[in-house]
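Hey all, sorry for the wall of text incoming. These are the two entities for the joint prediction.
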Amino acid sequence: MMLKDCQLVIMAGGIGSRFWPMSTPEYPKQFLDILGIGKSLLQLTVDRFRDSIDVRNIWVVTSRNYTDIVKEQLPEIDAEQILSEPCMRNTAPCISYAAWKIKKKYGNVSMIISPADHIVIDVSKFDEIIRQGLAFVSGSSRILTLGIVPTRPETGYGYIKSSGISEAGDPVCVESFKEKPDYETAKKYFEAEGYYWNAGIFLWQTDTILNEIRKNEPEMAELFESAVPYLCTDGEQDFINSIYPECKNISIDYAVMEKTCNAYVIPSSFGWSDLGTWGSLHERLSHDKNDNTSVGGNVKFVDCSGCIARMPANKKVVIQGLAGYIIAEKDDTLLICRLEEEQRIKEFSKY
Amino acid sequence: MMLKDCQLVIMAGGIGSRFWPMSTPEYPKQFLDILGIGKSLLQLTVDRFRDSIDVRNIWVVTSRNYTDIVKEQLPEIDAEQILSEPCMRNTAPCISYAAWKIKKKYGNVSMIISPADHIVIDVSKFDEIIRQGLAFVSGSSRILTLGIVPTRPETGYGYIKSSGISEAGDPVCVESFKEKPDYETAKKYFEAEGYYWNAGIFLWQTDTILNEIRKNEPEMAELFESAVPYLCTDGEQDFINSIYPECKNISIDYAVMEKTCNAYVIPSSFGWSDLGTWGSLHERLSHDKNDNTSVGGNVKFVDCSGCIARMPANKKVVIQGLAGYIIAEKDDTLLICRLEEEQRIKEFSKY
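and here's what came out:
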């Protein structure tokens, strides 16, 4: 059953530097068929909501460099619903832009904020949580964030600590947000109760987020208030282009989530990954008996273990004698590096 | 000074399987600019003789699959001088074909037999040895082979043992030929005197080799005798196509060199390599301070040592954390393998 009036905002402006060379600033991760299944992560994100959100209620906020890619990948979405950022300013301005525009067009409605580059395995479970969450925020000033129940002591995600323990999966108050922990701390979080991975998926009413921005980032709120006369008019893009660079470069987590008293978390288990690293992609793909995995190309592993290869479709590849390596090629760029050194990929991409 | 009447036969029919994926059966090693200097190994071979052999006296024997490549790479050589083998039959039939044809056209003259895919660093020293060698075989029934003075205990080459020790670099009798040795044996050869690498370069008079083939491979001799009426006529290729498959698949080493009593070896030091392995190519190229080397592409080694990368010209490559690996790409095929496993490349090429 479609969720009436609920507006979905997909944030698709990232540059995915950790997935170089597959992901490039010209064509980043969210637009790639990173799992090798024939759809980009952005397309999979839209698919995930296809049964609950009318396509007319889906918004995509992206860099102006990517609007053409979004239009190409999501031809069913009206160009009016694709919001174009003139520069990168993190998630708070992105969400503000969408929220002020939705407010002008639809008033105070339910909103879902979702990244464009994550994966969800159990979509029906996901849908259930979204519906439960929307009921929870409806008609209130609550902010709800989806907290992924940890399945391992992961050091690559931020954590949400709940205040008390959720009963029967109901939302509970957020006590605090935790930065990416070291391994020892991650182990403690994993063993304790009430710690969740911060998936960056938010549910709220339009007025809630507007008020939170007004309260916590008044300058940003003022910029978007000044834009209201132009939103949904021919002058919108020009005006946005003029104010966007003035916005503080700040995430919604820092701008709002860590400051508000209205944050709740709903424990969620639906097979989630932000696919933020080659390691997390490696985990999500099926492996041969030596824990090797490949997407694309015709890849033969010989005496290899724990490797991930991502190759162009027509490529024939023989890899011998590697343990724990990334082998990735796109266009005319090839990367071979240790999986455990993948945090240096951004550095490698600059050579 | 040009060597009058001397005929040079370049054998260019190999498939270079050990250099896959750069070398493929469609376009093998001898036709590649394997050193990245703008000329193929075949072109370098011809260049090596440019000051001593008139281009009208240069013959290239190759597979019929490669005659077009030879014509393209050596436009200065008359198409009549490019002999086309209808099938692969190793070096004895290849040399016989050339020798019988040269005999018919020029009678009993000096001949030089050279592989197409080796490199020589000191070309003037090489030229000196060739001239000295030709004087030695001239007007005699001697067979002279160039014996490379070993510079290391190499296990990848066959050896020639001389009978006694050469004085002042003069040719000496061959006592025996030795198969590729194991490391211990190679060390003994290296430390002893009178052992040379078999470079597969031969000098003789036409009649000498014809008589040796007649004596040691009478059936092969008979086949080529039967071809004489057709050689240098329009019927040559058809006739060769009909008899060639009948020839024994045998090297000149087995067919003649190991049996004859007329074999001599001349000690030679001119910086030679058969470039038969990635390892030998690695040795020949200049290295960075960590012993990495690359040909083609824009290759950046990070935390690497002892690696060799051979990449297409426009490729950008970052390689991190590898020690002792080959990374080679051609067309749509990529090989990554341990240098010490390179003897398995033929196997890898079949995946």
